[in-house]
Structures
1.
Amino acid sequence: MRRSYITIIEELIRFVLSVFFLSVLVFTLSRVAPGDPLYAYYGDRVEKMGTLEQEAARERLGLHEPIPVQYVRWVKNAAHGDFGISYQYKRDVKEVIAGRLGNTLLLGGLGFVIIFVLALLLGLFCAWREEKRADKIVCGIGTLTSCIPEFWLSLLLILVFSVWLKWLPSSGAYSMGAEGSLADRGRHLLLPLTVVVLGHLWYYAYLVRNRLLEETRADYVLLARMKGLSGKQVLYRHCLRNALPSYLSMMAIAFPHILGGTYVAETVFSYPGIGTLAYESARYQDYNLLMLVSLMTGILVIFGNMIAEILNERIDPRIYLKTEAQQRR
Amino acid sequence: MDVLTVKDLSVSFYRESGEIEAVKHVSFSLRPGEILVIMGDTGCGKSVLCKSIVKLLPDIAKIKTGQILFQGKEITGYSEKEMQKLRGASFSMIFQNPMTALNPCMSVGAQIAEAVRLRSPELSRRERWDRVIELLELVGIDRAKERAGQYPFHFSGGMAQRCVIAIALAADPAVLFADEPTTSLDEGMQEQILALLLELREKLGMAVILITHNPKVAARVADRAALMRDGELYRIGDTEEIFEEIIYNNY
Amino acid sequence: MQRKFPRFSLLLLAMILAGCLACECMMTKDPVYMDLANSNAAPSRAFLFGTDAMGRDIFSMIWYGGRISLLIGFLATLISTVAAVLVGSISGYAPSWADGMIMRTTDIVLSIPSLLLTVFLQAAIGGEGVYRLAVVIGLTSWMSMAKVVRTEVLQLKNTDYVLAARCLGGGFFHILRRHLAPNFAASILFMVVMNVRNAIVAESTLSFMGIGLPVGVISWGSMLSLSENALLSRSWWMILIPGAFLVTTLLCLTNLGNYMRKSINKRHSNL
């Protein structure tokens, strides 16, 4: 019991340190990069300003101080929940993000759930039909989908379903005047969701397949079949069970990547989400917005890795033994 | 009547490089309650012979010719479904390395319980667990109640092999296949496991086919012995005769 | 599980590669010439694959632009491989506190969304162009390979022959070149091929989003960056044809990479 407290504290310290370094890194990188945040705030009017006016504007935004001073001030404000205003939207960054967070959570979250389930099912199916025709066909199609860049898939889908067939809308999250309609949301979500799912699905399905195939070669499969279980039962009750811990930890790492990896789909489909926001803020030096967005995704990634590690250590009795032995040593 | 009869059995592996004959025209029979030891060098086809009788060969291996009779009934053409019933109820197998033969992620008790349930689905959960404990005690595991909840890695090699035997016994088999059951164990353990096999044979009356490359093991337990070389079973007979022959040929 | 040699993929890849390298012979028109009178023309005998919104001949652009896309793919992979081998082997070879630090840093870099990292790096390196983009892509894609190299080096570090070489006074780079690299080469070969693929994807995606190559520099990615207009004018050939070339190349590379992947297990399924 005591040992698990210590590991939790250790993990927490590591988490805080990681977040600290991440924030320093993003803060420094964004400010060292050339480009003028004044453009984000004032747009083209900057060119008409005199040097004195520009200096004054910089001072107002707190951009004249050295980077460490700026960083300390940012941390102080952030501790109070004040992350500053977005230069581009001229609103509190929290508001800007909150307005879009739902859309990304819907797209990425739904995408993740679908990938999670489908990858497992496809992996199981392929492992069950190993090297048979069905497996070969699924593997072939899967490899093909993994080779289609997301942006091109988006274009293809728009061309077919929006331009030629006119079945589905090509952009946005909802139609004007139909904000509350669930069916309308669904119609707008369908194409970007397809892109998000197909962009990641095969990578994970193939991993599940190969992991399961490794399991089917173990001796315990023979013993289980000698008990009178059918091949399918062995696959579900024994192989899947043994592969599940590593799949869960893999998906813990995958979650932030799928959630944060929606920006291509968001951009092509003009879907108002965090992805496009992150991209804009990095391009136009919208410092405060950039900091919060990258911290959010970064924390999610670090958190996902942590969960994966914990899952790995706790669920799989084999690994549990290993860590136990290490601690004894 | 013989419990198991194999007539003219040939098994081939079909690879891209061509056909490999692993078992060639093997015939033998097994009497109820006897221990038949099949001896031969590694790779001579002993294991394939066993696995082909219970039909657990990989996809690329096929039975080419021959007949397998179990208690006088031909089972060569049995479907996978029928074989499953037979495996759960009449055949059992133990393996060379007990640590890999047990599922590392399942408690030992649960693995035995699974076999018990397949054999006697009518038992309640309670009765099933009692049977698990009974089996563990039968194979000589102390503190069976406590040990049943543990995972394979908690067991030493010899203890794990006892658990595998417990799983095999759950089916109450007529024939037990033991594929090099002592090879991965150290000498003291080997003797214990062999003694256990003999004792169980006395108690339960099952027939045993034991595969080994170790003459010492054969001498310890065999009622009859068979010799295999290059997929052929070229000699079968009483243990003493076979051993005399081996010694005669070697010196 | 014996894998078949991907003869067809290799052949196709060789053909595309040859066509791009010898683009001068393949091109029927000047790829940069803007024939404004014939802009947005559908495929015809004069313009085999049609023309784009600026009147450039797509057939010629594909070979001409493919050269740039492939160049970026290979160059970026070279950079990322060198970086991965250096970081991975130093980390694996170093004492465990340094190893921990390097790997933590790698993890933190990995936790920055790759798009943001790309934008930062681009801004930091400055300027526009093919080589700069290759460097940016290379510097954002070495992390996972470095982890594999590190794991391999950790395993190799204490083998007898590496210890022997160290006792004889072999320097780090000597040991890396003579003893470590030959051993982990096999396990990263697959990743190297996949990195070529990923670099080509990155180039096209970045160019498409307007932060890679400008429209003036022809590559498969920059050709596709005009697709938004093509959608409006329903000029399918501007989207489908360069994309088909891109996907075919990526598919061939993937098949090649999968063939080089270390086989998981030679045994047969017990199922």
2.
Amino acid sequence: MIPFPSRDQTPAPNIPAPGFADPVRDAQRCFRRLLAALSYPGRPQEIGDLLPRGPEPLYSSTAALCLTLFDVDTPVWLEPGLDTPEVRQFLSFHCGCPIAAHPGEAAFALLPVAAAERLAAFHVGTPEYPDRAATLLIQTPSVTGGAPVAATGPGIPERQDFAVAGANGGFWSRRAAVDAAFPCGLDIVFVDPRQIVGLPRGVHAIGEDA
Amino acid sequence: MNAPDTGYNFAYLDEQTKRMIRRAILKAVAVPGYQVPFAGREMPLPYGWGTGGIQVTAAVIGADDTLKVIDQGADDTTNAVSIRRFFQRTAGVATTTETEKATLIQTRHRIPEARLGEHQILVYQVPIPEPLRWMEARESETRKMHALAEYGVMHVRLYEDIAHMGRIVKSYDYPVRVNGRYIMAPSPIPKFDNPKMDRMPALQLFGAGREKRIYAVPPYTRVESLDFEDHPFEIQTWSEGCALCGATDSYLDEVVTDDRGGRMMVCSDTDHCDKRRAAGHSGPMAAPYGETPR
């Protein structure tokens, strides 16, 4: 006879990090802040209050975006630094999204900010279907603590300054090269533990390359 | 009134559908003026009654939103009343007729006269999202024309108006160029409203249910009405003001008042007209404000 597990047993190590407490309400709140981030590029939006924690090494803010955006229709690329069993388990349990085998297949990608040189690997859409371009969620220690970047374009009245930590090493010139093919291009959301900054493809951002 | 119907998900659509629409909206914002295809659902009202706008609103709306719905500027027409009730019942949200108090405005064929702000989102109901459709029936061709920014045919269409009639006669759904790139149908708003779209601080979202397209104009984005150097774009003007509030700067509707040729011109935006009358403005046919006319 198989013994029934007792109630005071410590939780099995393979229980995924929790999802939204109220999935309908919290996904809507998260979406509206993401929509504001992409509508007003460069302006930080608060997003850290939606989930208590995410699967290591994702921030709770990044995990909230995953729960809001991903499902069976969206292949997701996990950059090696963020590809852990905890993250895979979290995504397969809560989102059911396929994990892309190659970056070029992904609708969404999760990247650490250090992986900026990977930009060219993602699908930028086609001139007929620019909406099929990937959206990159880039984790950074801070969306306000880096070298200043000046942005102009749709969503910005005159000029918007922002400062993403870690986005250097040629990141800005690489992004400019990818987005020169507008309407093709990559839509980027920088995520830190509390805030997000949106950077859609049509926005010109001039940063200081380190 | 704000007790939502049980038995439906919040705002009627299921979460998987909302996610799909939300992803389409984000791509629409990223490529201003480009029509994003989406898997439009059957809604509990016929095509032509705002099925696209309703799906966009349902994907965006939250419990803390205040919703305003207008049909040709009016809050009290059938389409506006039924859509407002739909979201009261399925989402339990607060509603208003006052433009300034709304955080989310769904509109059929008008932009409110009051200037919209950053805290607001304007959702348009769109019957025909493709501005080139009357010149080119094939979707494969119009898609290629947008991809190559090959818009000569649209200028020819406007030029033919000038050649035949001496001026561009298109008075509603007047084509615009968004951020210097895509030519976009602004939905059948009067061309009077076109200048309001230019660099509007509020986000503008467009939903076409039958054609299953979503597109967007982000805040502070250039929206130019197409024209020619020698035939510049002009908006409608009227020789008289609103008969009720005296406004000379708003879009006026003609209302037939009897069967002997009587008519009056009144503000199409009912909230704008009401606010002006409450503030003491009055037109030639106005009863004193607050008195119910017999």
